[in-house]
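Translate structure to sequence.
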């Protein structure tokens, strides 16, 4: 097959690796519009289950990613000025730039052409001519997908809270949260290490707090200074780092999250992968993992060369839409938890942190927080309550969805 992949993110690069391993005779080119090493996003997170899947797909790139990652087990939260710790499962962080470099090197090693600074203008671009398969891995604003809006049926829902991705020279050895109450409401940060030199910090707040603190009109340098003061105990005096900007008065890059879904995932020989197909709220830390799982599923669907292409792509889309239901549900409830943060901030910090860990639950929004905490602790010791919780949660979720 001649395979053209538009977008050099983790999903697109990893798919090229998998297909070259399946059949070295495939002619594969990856086109990335940005220069090599110019990616933005600081670090990405993943969990041990992903590493197992990557090892099965390509042990060499999995080993390189594992070796370049940092790990943690504890979660730490600072609520106002009180600190609490939660023991959890092992998590991993790796710099996005480092991950992309490792995947690009492995792809080239296998014979994939990786072309940086090479934008593909649209569905009729000459780079796509003659391709048996075109993979749109070009992100949430995919030009290839938008060339066929009626075929893919994309829907986008915008979130409520503004957020900003930042870096810091503070190296965190745990997944860390800080919740600060201001005269204009709550503002919070989650932070995690991704190397021995830097960490990622995501800052979020309600629109009212954002405007009350004048973050909607403050340039990036002044915004960083304000956030450094607010989160001084989390950062231990280390600075925050914003995006590289041209000009001292450049604005901070505050965003609102857009949740994307698509009714169909392929049209003809064009197939969607990663953020071009779906997005899930950043608070569950699953975006990169889901893109890599897309790559694994698409490669698996194409493994048997006797399967017609349309049938293979149909099976891929059906499988992934089904597999994504639980992640999309978790992301929806996680985003809602943060959008309703004041509901939980009257709790003692350790209890609030416990409910933070339960934020994916469809039951939590419908039960008073103190009662939910007590029921959850009791359910840990009583099988009947555990069964009731598992039975009631999905039913409330479906009822809310219909409403």
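Result:
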């Amino acid at each position: 097959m001649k395979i053209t992949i538009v977008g050099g993110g983790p999903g697109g690069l990893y798919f090229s690796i998998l297909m070259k391993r399946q059949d070295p005779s495939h002619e594969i080119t990856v086109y990335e519009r940005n220069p090599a090493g110019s990616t933005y996003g600081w670090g990405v997170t993943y969990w041990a289950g992903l590493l197992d899947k990557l090892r099965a797909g390509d042990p060499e790139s999995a080993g390189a990613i594992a070796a370049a990652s940092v790990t943690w087990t504890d979660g730490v939260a600072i609520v106002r000025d009180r600190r609490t710790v939660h023991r959890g499962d092992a998590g991993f962080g790796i710099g996005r730039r480092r991950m992309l470099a490792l995947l690009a090197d492995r792809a080239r090693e296998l014979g994939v052409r990786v072309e940086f600074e090479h934008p593909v203008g649209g569905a009729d671009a000459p780079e796509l001519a003659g391709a048996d398969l075109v993979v749109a891995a070009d992100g949430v604003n995919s030009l290839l997908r938008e060339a066929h809006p009626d075929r893919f049926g994309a829907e986008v829902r915008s979130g409520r809270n503004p957020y900003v991705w930042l870096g810091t020279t503070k190296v965190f050895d745990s997944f860390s949260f800080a919740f600060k109450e201001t005269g204009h409401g709550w503002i919070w940060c989650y932070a995690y290490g991704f190397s021995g030199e830097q960490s990622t910090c995501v800052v979020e707040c309600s629109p009212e707090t954002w405007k009350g603190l004048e973050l909607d009109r403050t340039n990036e340098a002044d915004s960083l200074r304000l956030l450094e003061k607010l989160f001084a105990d989390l950062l231990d005096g280390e600075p925050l780092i914003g995006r590289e900007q041209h000009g001292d008065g450049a604005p901070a890059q505050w965003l609102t999250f857009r949740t994307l879904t698509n009714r169909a995932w392929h049209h003809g020989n064009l197939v969607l992968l990663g953020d071009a197909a779906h997005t899930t709220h950043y608070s569950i830390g699953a975006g990169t993992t889901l893109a890599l799982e897309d790559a694994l599923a698409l490669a698996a669907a194409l493994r048997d060369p006797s399967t017609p292409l349309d049938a293979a792509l149909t099976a891929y889309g059906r499988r992934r839409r089904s597999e994504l239901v639980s992640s999309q549900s978790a992301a929806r409830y996680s985003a809602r938890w943060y959008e309703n943060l004041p509901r939980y901030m009257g709790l003692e910090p350790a209890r609030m942190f416990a409910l933070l860990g339960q934020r994916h639950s469809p039951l939590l929004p419908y039960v008073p927080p103190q009662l939910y905490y007590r029921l959850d602790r009791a359910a840990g010791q009583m099988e009947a309550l555990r069964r009731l919780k598992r039975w009631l949660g999905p039913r409330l979720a479906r009822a809310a969805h219909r409403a």
